[in-house]
What we know:
By secondary structure, the protein is mostly helical. The protein contains six helices and no strands. The model has no long low-confidence stretch (mean pLDDT 82).
Amino acid sequence: MVEEDTRRLWPQEDDIPAEFRPKEEGYDSVFIADQLQLLAPRDDTQRSLRMQATNLVMEFGQLRSMLTAQSVASISRPMLIVVVCWLMLIFLSFSLLAPLNPTATIALVAATLSVAGAVFLILEMDLPFEGMIRISSEPMVKAMTHLAK
């Protein structure tokens, strides 16, 4: 079960998006918290454990909701196109006005590469479970191997 959930969060294929919804309908954090409230504790220890379990389930539900909201790209395409066109015009005007010597050419190429790298990083960090730079699944795999022992 944990292995399947890990594959859902970190798919091996690049064209498959990460999936944060529960596998089965109706098994969300509210349902589980309601089921925990149906338990009849016999003493104070069981009451406190039930309260802790309810709090954990609600925290996991909030985390799942936050991950689902963040799994959608937050950078709009029109804004990205405008910014890239604006940067192209700036560097085009720099290259037209700069003197034709190796120092100016190297400076323009270095500036262009640094801006392109910054835009690339912004786009990669926008979707943490997809792309070339993604959140590693290694801690989850290590935890699964430790639990399997």
